[in-house]
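Bumping with the actual sequence this time:
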Amino acid sequence: ANIVADVLVMMSPVFAAALATEKRLICSGIIDGRKDDVISSLIKNGFRIEKTVKKNDWVALLAIRD
């Protein structure tokens, strides 16, 4: 998913419902200032953050569904 933070937060429950456990979700296109909002939403919906990559002001996340 390479979409803005608001959409990632809104779609976190959809991603969780669509993915079986131990599946990966890559989220990118996140401005650094909104990273924590996306991480919190993913964790709330059953994901754990495996990796965070930052380049300039942009962040990508690798989330694993537990």
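The tokens above came from a reply further down the thread. The helical segments are 5-18, 35-44.
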